[in-house]
Amino acid sequence: MRLFISLLLLILSASTFAAPKAALWPYWQQYATTDSQAVDHSRWQRLLDEYLVVQPNQTLFRYNRVSDGDKYELNRYLRDLARLDPHQLNRNEQFAYWVNLYNAQTVKLILDNYPVSSITKLGGFFSFGPWDEQVLTINGKRLSLNDIEHRILRPIWRDPRIHYAVNCASLGCPDLQPEVFTASNLERLLDKAATRFINSRKGVNPQDDKTQLSSIYDWYGSDFGSTSQLQKHINQYRQGAPITLGKVSYDYDWSLNEAK
């Protein structure tokens, strides 16, 4: 029986790397055509200012330092976002809303379960991480983190830079940005996030006879297009000599992005 359970868990773990496809949830397509409402992300910015550590090659979070008062402020920020109707926001405000909501909720999940070595340890017994858990209610609808990323952000905006914006609290993930996304900065911040990731070893690491890429480019290959399109995308942000994608391997580190 123990052997059967071990084999089952091994099979389930292997299958988790078949990342969800972009599948539009049509309800969330509606948006305002005016600039009538701006979302206040200042609470989230203060938490990033206090607990995010930006190192040359990696951005880390001080989960073990977050005070009870700041946990309350994070919960308050998430409650405030949940009270808003995204349909009343214009497209840029919506994008910033969903990305900040995703990232703040991810930090909350880690804090609620801390200490933990990896976000993949969260979730049910037969799940790989918490991404399918319905942890938010917006407009009376229950949402999971996977809903936000794969049923809202990816199919509505169709921008591969989304993968550099949402953070999964792991060392292999594109960094949690020290600046909150807003309607006015999102293009600049998306390019900044892409540049930082592509020029890190965890993103793109040319080696002697091959190039090691983040598994993100494997899991979400459909978002980046063909090999030549991916190569063009990488070289658009790469600093230094352009790369040619011939022999490629993939890697990803699920360890917690924690500042000790």
UniProtKB/TrEMBL annotation:
Domain of life: Bacteria
Keywords: Signal
Record carries keyword Signal: yes
Domain DUF547: 87-198
Signal listed as a keyword: yes
Signal peptide: 1-18
PANTHER family membership: ELECTRON CARRIER/ PROTEIN DISULFIDE OXIDOREDUCTASE, ELECTRON CARRIER_ PROTEIN DISULFIDE OXIDOREDUCTASE
Protein's name according to its UniProt entry: DUF547 domain-containing protein
